[in-house]
Fold these 3 entries.
Entry 1:
Amino acid sequence: MNQRIKELESLCWKELGEEEGYYPVFDTEQFAKLIVQECVTVCDSSNYQFGVIFSKMIKEHFGVK
């Protein structure tokens, strides 16, 4: 797996607490948002005009502002 994916994955763990203790929960929605944002960033930073077009298409498809 790509190192960047592992970095994004590590940002999506949170602990939920109960009287018995805390347990880790993976936030899949946050992970999806980070992946989409990463794709948009890569497209935006490309030197090709198509990158900007793809970035806009990705944002529109996933409803990212």
Entry 2:
Amino acid sequence: VIAHEQAHNSYALLSQTEKDTFSAVYTPLKTTDPLIKLLYSINTYGLVSDIEGHAELYRYLNGKMPVELKKFYPKLI
């Protein structure tokens, strides 16, 4: 839970352009990345919004998340 909340703080540090870019990169990965698909087959909360998805990825996948998403976690990764 602490990791999830800290990811919200990290998301708040992103500019609007970075948030939009995160969304553009993250959206297709929800259905193509094996770990993300597995996560959301067990716990769908991350599908509620990009903000919650951002937090859930950090909470559950952390260092195992796709490399192209790691830059969207300032102060965490």
Entry 3:
Amino acid sequence: MAQKTLERRPYTNSELFSGYYLDERLRDRDEWDCDKEAREAFEEIKRAYDGEKDYVDGYKEDQLCEHFVDPVLDALGYNRLSETKLPQGREEVDRLLFSSADDRRDASILQKNNEHEAMYKRGVGLLEAKQWDFDFSKSFSTRRNYANASSQIRYYLEKTPVEWGILTDGRKWRLYATRSYRTDIYYEVDLPELLEEGGLEAFKYFYLFFRPGAFVEHAGGSFLDDVESESETAAKELGEDLQDNVFTALRVLGRGFVETNDLDIDPEDDEALDELKEQSLVLLYRLMFVLYAESRNLIHPDGEAAVKEYEENFSLDELRFDIHDEIGGAGKGFDDAYSDRSTTMWRKLEDLFALIDEGEEDLGIPPYNGGLFDHDEHEFLTQNAVSNRYVAEV
């Protein structure tokens, strides 16, 4: 049976959920059957964006909220209160979000009576907005109780009884959970990109996670609670498969080294076999390191041109997608799809590993000093290559 073709992910998941769950299991949930509601929201948000896209870059924060962020919230079905004071302290949250008008009205009465803790308990989420294309990790110039925008939304969640928070600059919509205390744990979508390129199926990765119904608790928890819990289960199951996958990859890689380089290894030569296994493991560690780093945006080229060059010439994730498309789209096997003589993929991996080991100032990538990618320490990998057929399968 042909393998399913992978598409570019319509989201960035930084450890809040399981990427495997989002890719493979989310569509099995009943909530995924929401085409009518999602299409209506898509069309309304698209109209709002098309009307403002030539101006959003010049808007101040309050203007961006008024002309784009609030229309998005309206399209999703939220009620809201603006500039709501925290239960303690002088800070104000840009928007306190409600799933119904009745809850918003009740909260307004509580707000008037300065019952801020009770007011927040009526809400389902917080939203903090910044100017268009704002750097959420950039340190604020003034002294505050938080260092940057990411820590600001985390601070607000800690100071209120609300479980989920949204940080947005209009383009990026980022979701945070109260129980995840690190600022680098979040789920994010690029909304304009989904509106312009993604289509309805990709847009659901925004709609399902940012609509009011995602936050509302039902028997046992909310949609977001369920996704978080089921992600943990899926991650455990995936971890159990990892050991089998590593053993399979080791066998394929070992055969690839032998076949590609005509290595004459005596089956009784334990020293040669141990070296082959050890260096194959080093390569697998390198691949997993890079895939993890790319998924977390830890390899972050500086500037649009640098990002494009990295993706076209170095990115392991791009290579992985290309392989999935080639195998899944055409229903081919690895023997049919890839040469057992050409080593172009291996050369690309060598360029990538050298880039990580040595860094590249022009791309804004610093060197990695851990030794994993060092050529001198792993002479076997420097002297031997693996053909495309085996690299693709690994």
